[in-house]
Amino acid sequence: MAPSLPIEGSLFEAQTVKSDIPIEDGTLCLWQPLLSSDESETLFAQLSSTLNWRQDEMMIAGKRTPIPRLQAWYGDAGSQYGYSGIALPPLSWTKALLQIKQTIETITQQRFNSVLANYYRNGQDSVSWHQDNEPELGQNPIIASLSLGETRQFQLRHTKGKYPTIKLNLPHNTLLLMSGSTQKNWQHQIPKTKKAVGPRINLTFRLIQN
User: Fold this and answer.
1) Which pLDDT score is estimated for 82?
2) Which member of 2, 80, 164, 202 lies 3.0 to 4.6 Å from 46 by CB, making a disulfide possible if both were Cys?
3) Residue 173 half-sphere exposure toward CB, CA atoms < 13 A
4) Which residues contact 144 (CB under 8 A, 6 or more apart)?
5) DSSP alpha helices (H): ranges in the chain?
6) What are the phi and psi torsion angles at 80 (to 5°)?
7) Which pLDDT does position 63 carry in this prediction?
8) So what's the pLDDT on residue 13?
């Protein structure tokens, strides 16, 4: 079993740098590295082996099709979430998830009560174009997305095609904050890749509006 993260104290990496990413009709900020090297490696190993990963199915062309990744939903009591016909009742916070949530809340000055964890096992795991704009996320959802493991390309495209597609390589131990009107005006995806890549975990922290 992977060693536990310390429960007391901050996990901030002393050299964390915040960058504002230029984008029209939205707001993107990036912090890297978020944690120290040892803490990020420990967190990745711990989440890989201890979260309650599951492979859900979506209805596509009238057929139930497995989504190309594993996922798990954790959060406060009552933070029910769902998308594309998939219902995700919240599991209770683990100590590791709760601590990284508190670290991210401190650095972003935002509050979150839930997290969708995604496990991309290889380059054929992906998530297609979508917006995180379900009603339970409120008017202008704020999504804090922590990447751990292999670097994958994160793409954004404007819903009205007004601007070129944005392509960001998100390496291990980076935090991306999407806020403002980003979810209203932009879709995002993690496309498949033919490159040989190892596993990646993505933690997307959210605030469910009850």
Assistant:
1) 84
2) 2
3) 19
4) 104, 108, 110, 112, 175, 176, 177, 204, 205
5) 37-50, 95-108, 182-185
6) -65, 140
7) 81
8) 59
- Give the pLDDT score at 7: 32
Report the pLDDT value the prediction gives residue 11, as an integer from 0 to 100.
Answer: 59
The pLDDT, as a whole number, for residue 203 is 98
Domains and CATH numbers, the chain: 17-50+67-206 (2.60.120.590)
pTM, two decimals, is: 0.91
Return d(Cα 144, Cα 82) in angstroms, integer: 18
Taking the C-alpha atoms of residue 49 and residue 98, their distance in angstroms, rounded to an integer, is 17
> Residue 179 burial (CB < 10 Å; 0-12/13-18/19+)?
middle
Orientation angle between helical segments 37-50 and 95-108, nearest 10 degrees: 130
Amino acid identity of 110? Q
As a whole number of angstroms, the distance between CA 75 and CA 9 comes to: 22
Q: Which residues of the chain have pLDDT under 70?
A: 1-14
Give the tokens for residue 130.
């979508």
Q: Is the CA virtual torsion 37, 108, 178, 163 positive or negative? A: negative
pLDDT value for 12? 57
Among candidate residues 61, 14, 68, 66, the one with its CA nearest the CA of residue 37: 14
Nearest to 168 by CA among 176, 160, 180: 176
The amino acid present at 58, given as its one-letter code, is: M
> Is the distance from CB of 30 to CB of 176 less than 8 angstroms?
yes
